[in-house]
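= Tokenised fold =
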Amino acid sequence: MENVTEVRIDRLAYGGDAIGKLPDGRVVFIPYALPGERVRVSLVDEKPHLVRAKLLEVIEPSDERISPRCPHFGLCGGCHYQHMKYPAQLKSKAHILQEQLERIGHFKEIPPIRIGASPEEWYYRNHIQFHLTHTGELGFQIARTNQSFPVRECHLPEKLINQIWPQIEIEPHLGFDRISLRSGMDGELMLILEGSNPPVLDFSIENLTLSVVQVGPFGTAVLEGSDHILIEISGKRFKVSPTSFFQVNKSQASAIVKHCLDLLTLTPNMTVLDVYAGVGLFSAFIAPKVKRLVGIELSPEACEDFINNLDEFDNVDLYEAPADQVLSSVQFKPDLILIDPPRAGLGKQTAQAVVAQGAEHLVYISCDPATLARDGRLLMMGGYALIEIHLFDMFPQTYHIESLSVWKKK
């Protein structure tokens, strides 16, 4: 017999679920419910102190609840908050960010979290990735599984990408698992195919600058057009290779760059480290204002892009190596360290190496509040104080949280 009960929702958790308590006191996680709602749920995974449930009915809906725009919402694993008004999404993300810092980082005092809303709530992604179904259709993964379903519409990619992807057909059973579309300047698009076999494509698009590249175990092969795409941020053009990371929300990338430049007092006698420098998004704006800029990046493709994007500057050095190795072996005597790690964060060894560099200020750009909280505790133990924190909503309609925090040496 199905175990059905009613729950009052308390808050949202990082990861998209809502949290409530069962009558016996156990915490229950429920997708697609909202704070304040009374809901009927089915318990699907029970453990002694934690339960996961499926939402059956919203008995008392929140005033923040709205109808999702996409018919795939609830099946697709890409969006988590389409049923919530956008201001409520921002408020919930700020609450989650603070909760993660308090619970995981054990922070007692946290500066007020300033929120930078995305100018576009929809159609903001310049990069979208599809998984292929067994019949060769473009698809997304079903929530909480590794299975894919054929997608009919999506409201997150930029409109040019949305015009193009429905026209793409790929012969099935060719060894391709995923394809991506990335948009650049002046209507330029790049189609990135991930697999080991030559693709069979069937689409013809007029008045479009399209590059097609194949990324496989033996490197990247250009099938048509260019081996890179150009993306413009705040008046600067960046070369971005197929496997190089770049922020998917260009408006918010510009906002973060501008905020950094407004926030930091950069002078001609400063040394700045850009750790996890990528293609040089931040370095390109910082280099002309300081004495020395040092980039540290592990990806060979991103390093090539970095060199191209900062070729005009003579005061720039680049280390192609793991961050912890470089920071542990070379003392740069920096005035400022900018850190933009992947979702896994710094980890203990890299955080300790950052602290040992002795910079007066740190700027930490995070895409995961849990690893920020963990790393932040290590920075705090190393003698740094959190003095400012800003949430830039890079991913509307999803649970993902991008933040910029500023740390000062005590």
In short: The longest strand covers residues 50-60.
